[in-house]
Design goal:
Blueprint: E1 2-3, H1 6-17, E2 22-25, H2 32-39, E3 45-48, H3 52-66, E4 70-74, H4 78-81, H5 84-93, E5 97-103, E6 129-132, H6 142-162, E7 166-171, E8 179-180, H7 202-210, E9 214-218, H8 228-235, E10 240-244, E11 255-256, H9 259-263, H10 270-274, E12 280-284, H11 291-299, E13 305-308, E14 320-324, H12 328-333, H13 344-365, H14 370-380, E15 386-389, H15 393-398, E16 408-410, H16 421-430, E17 436-441, H17 442-447, E18 462-467, H18 473-476, H19 484-489, H20 499-505, E19 508-512, H21 515-527, E20 533-538, H22 544-555
Parallel strand pairs: 2-3, 2-4, 4-5, 5-7, 6-7, 9-10, 9-12, 10-11, 12-13, 13-14, 15-16, 15-17, 17-18, 18-20, 19-20
Antiparallel strand pairs: 1-8
Helix pairs in contact: 1-2, 1-6, 3-5, 3-16
Subunit structure: Homodimer.
InterPro entries: MenaQ_synth_MenD, THDP-binding, Thiamin_PyroP_enz_TPP-bd_dom, TPP_enzyme_TPP-bd
Cofactor: thiamine diphosphate; Mg(2+); Mn(2+)
C-alpha cells in the first residue's frame, strides 16, 4: 500500500534511491499522503514525535551521528515554523536535514482557512535550498512530473554537497487518504555536483614558512578527523601552538585543551598576553566556544587567518585571507617542513601546564558548586560513551576539564541556543550503539521538556541536569547581580525540579545536593540500564560565579 498521489510517490521513490531512511513525522492531516507512504514502506525507519520543535531537533541528532540525510515531515501552518530553531542549528552546524512540509494548494492560501500561512521560502536565509512542488493528480502529466523530479533531486543534491538543511514544500489537494497497491510511476536520480575544491595558495606556504608564531584552533569537529600521526606531525613544529576545544574530539599531549584556563589569568595583563599574539591563525572546525580567545584575537588584530575544511568558513577575527577547502588531515600532509627556530609552543605549553599544576589545590578547597560538580562528573564518567553537552554554562564548564579520549562529544554549537539540547541528544542516542550521557543546565532542560514525550529514549540513556535555580551564565557576565529585575528578567530564578517530569514520562529519578551524597547518587544513575535515568544535581545559585572567577585568579 502507498499513496495514490503522484508527487508524493516521487518523493518516496527518490528518497529510497538516495538512501534517505530515517523519517521523523509529526502527526497531522495535510501530510497524510507522505505519512501513509513512509510508514507503509519497510525501507523507511519512521518516528512519531508530536512537538515539531522537538521532532526537528530529534532528527538533527540522528543526522549528527549518522552523517547522512534525515527528513522531518509535518502538516501545514504553524507546524513548520516550529522547525525553525533546528533548521537554523542545522544551517550553522552544517547538518544534512530535509524539511518536508505539507501545504494547501496555492489558490487556497490566505482565503481565511485555518493553518494556512505563506510556507514557501519561510526559512529565509537559514536554508541551503527551498522549493515548492507542483500538484499532480494525473500521473500522465509529464511536464509537472519532470519539473518535480528535478526539484526534489536538486534539494537532495544540495543537502548532500553543501551540508545544510533544505526545504521541500508539498501542496496537496484533497482527498488525502487514497491509496493504491504499489507505486505506479518511476523516477530518475540526478548526479550530485562535484564538490568545489580549493588549491592551497602559494602565499599560504610562504606565510607558513616565515611565521615563527602559528596558532591552530580546533573547534567543533565530527570525529574522526585527525590520526595520531597527523597531530604528531603538526605539533612537531616548535612554532605551532595548537588549542583545542572539548567538542573538537581531539586529544594529544601537546595541545592546550583548556583555552580559557590559559588566557583568563593573563587577559588583562597587556604585556604578558601580547606575547601570545600569533603571526598566523588557522581555524579548523565549527563555531569556537571560547569567547576569551575570540575577544583576544580581535583585540590584538589578528594579522592573517585561514580556515581549513571542506564546508563553510567564518571571518571570526575580521582577517580571513582564504578558505582552503580540503580535508584537515590532507592539509597537514601538505605542510612544508619548518626550519624557523621558535619557542612559541614550548613557552605557552609550559605556562598552561603550570596553571594545570595549581588546579588540584584549588579544586580541593572549594565548596559544593557548579565547578565542584563538573570536577566530580568528569572524574566519574565511564569510558566509551557519547557525551552530549548543553549550551551556556554547561559547555563552558566542560572546557575546563580534560577530555576522555574514549568519549565522543557533541553540542549544538551552530546557533548555541539552549533550545533542543535534550531532543538532539535523544535523537542522537537512538542512532549510536554506545551509551549516551547528556549533561545540561536546568533552564535548557525545562525549556525542552517535551523532548521526553516520545517512545524512543534508549533504556540505557543518562540525563544529568545541573539545577542552580536559574540562568547561571548571567551571574558570570558583568553587571549588577543584586537587583530584583536581574533575578526576574536575566537570571530567571525558579524553584522547579525535574521529579514530576520523570514521573510523567517514565524515567527513574535521582537527586543530590551535596558532595558527600554524590557518589551514591551517581552510582544509582549509572548502574541501572533497563530504564532511562535522570540525575538532578542541585547547586547553590549565588556562589557559582564567585568560585569560577576566583579559579582564574588563583591560577594567576
Amino acid at each position: 500500500m502507498t499513496t495514490s498521489i503522484p508527487h508524493a510517490q516521487q518523493i518516496l521513490l527518490l528518497f529510497k534511491k538516495r538512501g534517505v531512511k530515517h523519517i521523523v513525522i509529526s502527526p497531522g492531516s495535510r501530510n497524510a499522503p507522505l505519512t501513509i507512504g513512509f510508514t507503509s514502506d519497510d525501507f523507511f525507519t519512521c518516528y512519531s514525535i508530536v512537538d515539531e520543535r522537538c521532532a526537528a531537533h530529534f532528527a538533527l541528532g540522528i543526522a549528527q551521528q549518522l552523517q547522512e540525510l534525515v527528513a522531518c515531515l509535518c502538516t501545514s501552518g504553524s507546524a513548520l515554523l516550529n522547525y525553525y530553531p533546528a533548521v537554523a542549528e542545522a544551517y550553522y552546524s552544517e547538518i544534512q536535514l530535509i524539511i518536508l512540509s505539507a501545504d494547501r494548494p496555492p489558490h487556497k492560501i490566505d482565503i481565511g482557512d485555518g493553518q494556512t500561512i505563506q510556507q514557501k521560502n519561510v526559512y529565509g536565509k537559514h536554508i541551503i535550498y527551498d522549493t515548492q512542488l507542483e500538484i499532480i493528480n494525473d500521473p500522465s502529466n509529464q511536464e509537472h512530473l519532470v519539473t518535480n523530479e528535478r526539484k526534489i533531486n536538486r534539494a537532495l543534491n544540495n543537502c548532500l554537497s553543501k551540508y545544510g538543511p533544505v526545504h521541500i514544500n508539498v501542496p496537496f489537494e484533497e482527498p488525502l487518504y487514497n491509496t493504491i497497491k504499489d507505486y505506479n510511476l518511476d523516477v530518475k536520480v540526478m548526479d550530485v555536483l562535484k564538490q568545489e575544491r580549493t588549491v592551497i595558495p602559494d602565499e599560504f606556504y610562504e606565510q607558513w614558512s616565515s611565521a615563527s608564531r602559528k596558532l591552530v584552533i580546533l573547534s567543533t569537529l565530527n570525529p574522526p578527523v585527525f590520526t595520531k600521526e597527523d597531530l604528531d606531525k603538526l605539533t612537531a613544529d616548535p612554532s605551532v601552538l595548537v588549542m583545542s576545544e572539548v567538542s573538537s574530539n581531539v586529544v594529544h599531549d601537546k595541545l592546550v585543551w583548556g583555552i580559557d584556563t590559559l588566557i583568563a589569568p593573563i587577559e588583562f595583563d597587556d604585556g604578558e598576553i601580547a606575547a601570545l599574539q600569533p603571526d598566523l591563525v588557522i581555524t579548523i572546525g565549527g563555531m569556537i566556544v571560547s569567547k576569551k580567545v575570540k575577544q583576544y584575537l580581535r583585540r590584538f588584530e589578528t594579522r592573517i587567518h585561514y580556515h581549513i575544511g571542506r564546508r563553510r568558513a567564518y571571518d571570526t577575527f575580521f582577517k580571513l585571507a582564504a578558505h582552503i577547502k580540503i580535508a584537515p588531515s590532507e592539509w597537514i600532509h601538505k605542510l612544508p617542513e619548518n626550519t624557523i627556530s621558535s619557542d612559541y609552543q614550548q613557552q605557552w605549553l609550559g605556562k598552561f601546564r603550570t596553571y594545570l599544576s595549581k588546579r588540584p589545590d584549588y579544586l580541593a578547597q572549594i565548596p559544593w558548586s557548579d565547578l565542584k560538580v563538573f570536577e566530580l562528573l568528569f572524574n566519574a564518567l565511564p569510558d566509551d560513551i557519547t557525551l552530549q553537552l548543553g549550551n551556556s554554562s554547561t559547555i563552558r564548564y566542560a572546557q575546563l576539564f580534560p577530555m576522555n579520549a574514549s568519549h565522543t562529544v557533541f553540542s549544538n554549537r551552530g546557533t548555541s541556543g539552549i533550545d533542543g539540547s535534550t531532543s538532539t541528544a535523544i535523537g542522537a542516542a537512538t542512532a549510536v550503539k554506545n551509551r549516551t550521557f547528556l549533561i545540561t543546565g536546568d533552564l535548557s532542560f525545562f525549556y525542552d521538556s517535551n523532548a521526553l514525550w516520545n517512545n524512543y529514549i534508549p533504556r540505557d540513556m543518562k540525563i544529568i541536569v545541573i539545577n542552580n535555580s536559574g540562568g547561571g551564565i548571567f551571574r558570570i557576565l558583568p553587571g549588577e547581580k543584586n537587583e530584583d529585575y536581574f533575578n526576574t528578567y536575566f537570571e530567571t530564578v525558579h524553584q522547579l525540579t525535574a521529579r514530576q517530569l520523570c514521573d510523567m514520562h517514565g524515567l527513574d529519578y535521582h537527586s543530590v545536593d551535596n558532595e558527600l551524597a554524590f557518589a551514591k547518587a551517581y552510582k544509582s544513575l549509572s548502574s541501572c540500564n533497563n530504564r532511562p535515568q535522570l540525575l538532578e544535581i542541585f547547586t547553590p545559585r549565588t556562589v557559582n560565579d564567585e568560585i569560577l572567577l576566583k579559579y582564574f585568579q588563583y591560577l594567576k
